[in-house]
């Protein structure tokens, strides 16, 4: 899937690569300085149809599989661009396509495919529960034909740049359900409406340009018809979105890692110190070679996880492992690239420090490396839970 000679995705890779050439490093540097959203880049991806990759053709999309979406995002990152501004529109589809009603899909998917709507926000995380999703405190209470939503979400990226949000809220208190994963429901929230004071979005300043916010809901009314699937089954539904998210972000990490390996090896060949290229020194070349091998091994796990997802097979463990291995590979490659460039790596004009900051995020989000290790230890290897 990720090899350059794969004929199945060569056209996608070539098309995305050509599009990215129109948005050079200077474009991303300017955005980074002002913490601005890459509207022009997103519009270009939308117009070219890449953000509609997973939307079925009957709704105006490309009808491609998750592997193709992985290629799109991997190519974006490998080109030195940043797909984080748009990747949610791909991974949220895992929940909407598999569990949304035909009415909901018919109402929203054509406009999403045409670029008339953006679905860029995934409202799950809260300040008091972190990764323990079953302890969310945002509530949705049925009131006639509406649900009234009250609560706070945090680390919700792109809330200011979306029309729709996929929101997880408790419809039954945790203490009243037989399993903590029950009693949560998913809603497709339309933020275009006149929300007044019932929704407040506040930006969070961060070390990278990620359009991160916290969102407050104070009696926000959502039509009952915007409930995804059955009430109380939302946690199960969002797992499809989370698995897709982890696989796609793993693909981004592979792209980042390949960017760093290429930049490091090119610089090692060009940079001369003591009348010889620094890449002639094993102390320089060995770490780059090591980063390359870690990257290609991670790419294989990403391909395996994406294939399982596309075949509608259980893929939770593989999605988590792909995200872990790819984020580790990208962070290792970023560190090696910084070391190879030396002092020049700190200069913004080389873009290494920007990409270094961007790829560091994926050690933490969408799930930390420690939580993935815990998941594999308990759910794959059968060890007792540590928490």
List the helices and strands and how they pair.
Elements: H1 10-21, H2 25-34, H3 39-47, H4 66-78, H5 88-91, H6 93-99, H7 102-114, E1 119-123, E2 139-143, E3 146-157, E4 164-170, E5 184-190, E6 199-203, E7 212-223, E8 227-228, H8 234-270, E9 272-273, E10 276-277, H9 282-310, H10 316-341, H11 352-360, H12 369-380
Parallel strand pairs: 1-4
Antiparallel strand pairs: 2-3, 3-7, 4-5, 5-8, 6-7, 9-10
Helix pairs in contact: 1-4, 4-8, 6-8, 8-9, 8-10, 9-10, 10-11, 10-12
What does this protein look like?
With 387 residues, the chain is an alpha+beta fold. It has three domains: 10-114, Butyryl-Coa Dehydrogenase, subunit A, domain 1, CATH 1.10.540; 119-233, Butyryl-CoA Dehydrogenase, subunit A, domain 2 (Beta Barrel), CATH 2.40.110; 236-380, Butyryl-CoA Dehydrogenase, subunit A, domain 3, CATH 1.20.140. Helix content is 47%, strand content 15%. The chain is built from twelve helices and ten strands. It has helices at residues 10-21, 25-34, 39-47, 66-78, 88-91, 93-99, 102-114, 234-270, 282-310, 316-341, 352-360, 369-380, and strands at residues 119-123, 139-143, 146-157, 164-170, 184-190, 199-203, 212-223, 227-228, 272-273, 276-277. A hairpin with a 2-residue loop joins strand 9 and strand 10 (276-277). Helix 4 (66-78) runs parallel beside helix 8 (234-270), helix 9 (282-310) runs antiparallel to helix 10 and helix 10 packs antiparallel against helix 11. The protein starts with 9 loop residues before the first helix and ends in a 7-residue tail after the last helix. 46% of the residues are buried. Mean pLDDT is 94; it is low at 1-5.
């Amino acid at each position: 899937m990720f090899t350059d000679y794969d004929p199945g995705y060569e056209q996608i890779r070539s098309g995305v690569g050509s599009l990215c050439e129109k948005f050079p490093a200077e474009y991303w540097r300017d955005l980074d300085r002002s913490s601005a959203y890459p509207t022009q880049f997103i519009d270009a991806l939308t117009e070219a149809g890449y953000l509609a990759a997973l939307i079925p053709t009957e709704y105006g999309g490309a009808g491609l599989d998750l592997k193709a979406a992985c290629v799109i995002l991997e190519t974006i990152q490998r080109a030195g661009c940043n797909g984080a501004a748009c990747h949610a529109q791909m991974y949220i589809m895992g929940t909407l396509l598999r569990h949304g009603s035909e009415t909901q899909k018919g109402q929203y998917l054509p406009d999403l495919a045409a670029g008339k709507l953006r679905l860029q926000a995934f409202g799950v995380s809260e300040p008091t529960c972190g990764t323990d999703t079953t302890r969310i405190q945002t509530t949705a209470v049925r009131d006639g034909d509406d649900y009234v939503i009250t609560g706070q979400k945090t680390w919700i990226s792109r809330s200011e740049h979306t029309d729709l949000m996929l929101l997880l809220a408790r419809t039954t208190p945790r203490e009243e359900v037989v399993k903590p994963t029950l009693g949560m429901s998913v809603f497709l929230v339309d933020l275009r409406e006149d929300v007044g004071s019932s929704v407040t979005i506040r930006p969070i300043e961060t070390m990278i340009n990620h359009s991160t916010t916290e969102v407050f809901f104070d009696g926000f009314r959502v039509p009952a018809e915007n409930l995804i699937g059955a009430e109380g089954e939302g946690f199960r539904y969002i797992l499809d979105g989370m698995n897709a998210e982890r696989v796609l972000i793993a693909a981004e990490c592979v792209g980042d890692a390949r960017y760093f390996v290429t930049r490091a090896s090119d610089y090692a060949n060009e940079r001369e110190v003591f009348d010889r290229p620094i890449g002639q020194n094993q102390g320089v070349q060995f770490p780059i070679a090591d980063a390359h091998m870690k990257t290609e091994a991670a790419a294989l796990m990403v391909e395996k996880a994406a294939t399982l997802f596309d075949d509608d097979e259980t893929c939770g463990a593989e999605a988590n492992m792909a995200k872990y291995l790819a984020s580790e590979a990208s962070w290792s490659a970023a560190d090696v690239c910084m070391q190879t460039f030396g002092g020049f790596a700190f200069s913004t004009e080389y873009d290494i420090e920007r990409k270094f900051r961007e790829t560091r995020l994926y050690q933490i989000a969408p799930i930390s490396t420690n939580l993935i290790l815990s998941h594999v230890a308990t759910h794959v290897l059968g060890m007792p839970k540590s928490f």
